[in-house]
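User: Could you check the structure of this?
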Amino acid sequence: STRWSKVPLSSGTQTFTWHLTARHATAKWHYYVTKPNWNPNEPLTRDQFELIPFYEQYDGGARPGEKVTHEVTIPERTGYHVILGVWDVADTANAFYNVIDVEFGNGNDTPPVDPSPQPPEPSPYPIWDATTVYLGGDRVLYDGRAYEARWWTLGEVPGSADVWRPL
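Assistant: Sure, the predicted structure tokens are below.
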């Protein structure tokens, strides 16, 4: 239960966005959340998730854009849970999976707003570019965060691929 960082989240309407580097023909998108009584100190299994997805969208083989956004309604939960997002490819048996470790609070999960935000410091790292080959030790800035490549990479998005380590 303490192994992973958790995103603060509230039950109810949320927006999830996928950033795609390969735009496969899509059968459907579906999302699941762990059951209310799941044990976060045991290995995560499919049995710990609700059987029925809380959101489904069928795309009938359409090829998505680079960004896909879903407005979903997350069931009522409190405490630590995991959300599983599945993207089923239409023309093969393949699928892509994403999980989010989340912490549901008491309905007041909105982070406080700094009344006098300061402009961000300029980054010493270049902006990540999908067409650039990076080698182990190379550092980049992506979506406002700095990352370091662990090994050779091309086109793998920082923050969603194991090759990148957040700094």
